[in-house]
Each structure stands twice: as C-alpha cells, then as structure tokens.
C-alpha cells in the first residue's frame, strides 16, 4: 500500500517505437499515489501507449518504468495486473454472464471467499447507484451504456486493487451520462483514494477530473501541473493552443 505523497508510477527516459517510428520519446513522468492523474492530449499523441506500458500490455524499447518502487520487469505479469483495475471506453462485459458474475471473475481468480465476494458486489453496486436487488442478475444486453460503464467501474474495483487505469472511459457516452459518471468517479475517489491514471482527449474532462494533469503531444509531455496551473500558466504554446481550442 502506498502512502499519500509517494510516487506510485515512475517513467524514466522511456521510449517506444512501432515499426521504427518513435511514438513515445524520452518520457519522464512521476504519478503520485492516491490521486487522479490525467493524461490529456489529442488522438494519436501516445496516451494509450503510455497506459498500456503500465500494465505491461506494451513493452518499452528503452528506459525504465517502476511501479511502487519496483522495476516493472521484476514483476510477474499476473502479480502486476492484479494490482490494477482497467476501465476501457468500450466496456467488454461477458455477454453470457450476469452483472454479478461479471464482477466476480477477478475476485474468484484471487480466491476471495464466496461470502465476501457477494458482500463486495452488493456494496460496490450500491456505491455506483445500481442496487444489487435490481441489477445483479441482469445480463449486459439489459443495461444502458452508462449502466454498463458503472458495472465496468465496479468490476475494476472488485478485487480492491491500489491502482486503476481508465482509458477514455466516458467518451462513448451521451453528455448527461458522461457528467453523471464523472461525478460518480470523483465521489468514489473521495472515499477510496486509489491511484488513478485517467486518459482523455477532452481538456474540460481533464480539468474536472484531475488532481494533476499531464498534457501529451507527439509522445512527449508538454506540461504537468494542477488543473489551475495548466489553465492559468500554460508552459508551452502548444498547451495554450490546445486549451484555447477546447473552450
Ligand atoms: P492516443 O491514445 O493518444 O490516441 P496511441 O497511444 O493509441 O495514442 O497511439 C500513438 C501512436 O502510435 C499513433 O500514431 C498510433 O497509430 C501508433 N500506434 C499505437 N499502437 C500501435 C501498434 N500496435 N502498432 C503500430 N502503431 C501503433
């Protein structure tokens, strides 16, 4: 367990090439524990690649990544992934399983006792405003987009990992559901204090969600700061322009 003020994830001189083309260039980044850290930038800037290096879906070509002070290469991949919940834009719930069964997959793999899993499902569903009595036995096809995304968030939290990775989690939702889900994640975070890395192309969402924001452009970090710092004192012309364009 990491403490407030500690660095949970660190990238040092990380690079990644695809077919000889550098997509991530000399990336240095320190993600503080127990906060929401937003990677914001236009499509194609490298945000997802950075996120996928944290859960070892993508390996860097150079540099070093440490998670909770330990080099990523020293983890067993399964141990690494068990520390992380993953929420994607298109939430892939298993269509033949109920909501409760979908949420139980990882806790069961981790051999959490059945009774505890049931309690946890009920508590977490209540926290995302989907009462278990009404939703636990539904199938994914019986959920709206916003409800499915709430289940996706519960599934990521089910085994209580210290780290949550979110990749454009609300981008496919209608504006009202998006606003509701943003508020919900902020409310949950105020209780749970996870280390969250949140990817978005939307500067307004970044400002709303982030304790800290890193602006990414062409695989490089342009600026890291609090929403206020980035808003009031853009460090580069690019950040100023990106910010102006999204207002
Ligand atoms: P973002 O998440 O900011 O939209 P990505 O990290 O998905 O950006 O992509 C960054 C760049 O890397 C893009 O130009 C994309 O086309 C390229 N890219 C991503 N994944 C691959 C891959 N597996 N093979 C080749 N190119 C890739």
Number of helices: 10
Pattern of helices and strands: EEEHEEHEHHHHEHEHEEHH
**Roughly what fraction of the amino acids lie in strands?**
25-35%
Proportion in helices: 25-40%
Bound molecules: adenosine-5'-diphosphate
Low-pLDDT runs of 5+ residues are: none
Distance between the termini: 38 Å
Secondary structure tally: strands: 10
Average of per-residue pLDDT values: 94
Q: Give the biggest sheet.
A: 6 strands, mixed
Q: What's the alpha carbon Rg, rounded to whole Å?
A: 18 Å
Describe this structure in words.
- The protein is α/β, with parallel strands linked by helices and 247 residues long.
- Helices cover 39% and strands 26% of the residues.
- The chain has 10 helices and 10 strands.
Write the layout of secondary structure elements.
Elements: E1 7-18, E2 21-32, E3 36-40, H1 47-54, E4 62-67, E5 70-71, H2 77-82, E6 84-88, H3 99-109, H4 114-127, H5 132-135, H6 145-157, E7 163-167, H7 175-192, E8 195-200, H8 203-209, E9 212-217, E10 220-225, H9 227-232, H10 237-245
Parallel strand pairs: 3-8, 3-9, 6-7, 7-8
Antiparallel strand pairs: 1-2, 1-4, 4-5, 9-10
Helix pairs in contact: 3-4, 3-6
The chain binds adenosine-5'-diphosphate (ADP).
């Amino acid at each position: 367990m990491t403490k407030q003020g500690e660095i949970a994830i660190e990238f040092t001189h990380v690079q990644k090439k695809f077919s000889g083309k550098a997509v991530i260039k000399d990336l240095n980044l320190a993600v503080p524990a127990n906060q929401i850290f937003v990677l914001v930038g236009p499509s194609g800037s490298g945000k997802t690649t950075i996120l996928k290096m944290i859960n070892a879906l993508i390996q860097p070509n150079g540099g070093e990544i440490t998670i909770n002070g330990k080099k990523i290469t020293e983890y067993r991949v399964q141990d690494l992934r068990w520390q992380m919940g993953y929420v994607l834009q298109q939430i892939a719930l298993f269509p033949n399983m109920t909501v409760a069964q979908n949420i139980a997959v990882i806790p069961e793999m981790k051999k959490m006792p059945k009774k505890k899993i049931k309690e946890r499902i009920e508590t977490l569903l209540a926290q995302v405003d989907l009462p278990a009595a009404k939703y636990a036995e539904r199938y994914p096809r019986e959920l709206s987009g916003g409800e499915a995304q709430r289940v996706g968030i519960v599934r990521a939290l089910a085994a209580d990992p210290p780290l949550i990775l979110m990749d454009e989690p609300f981008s496919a939702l209608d504006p009202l559901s998006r606003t509701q889900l943003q508020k919900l994640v902020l409310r949950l975070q105020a209780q749970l204090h996870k280390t969250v890395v949140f990817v978005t192309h939307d500067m307004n969402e970044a400002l709303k969600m982030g304790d800290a924001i890193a602006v990414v452009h062409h695989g490089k970090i342009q600026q890291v700061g609090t929403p206020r710092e980035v808003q009031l004192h853009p460090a580069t012309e690019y950040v100023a322009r990106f910010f102006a364009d999204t207002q």
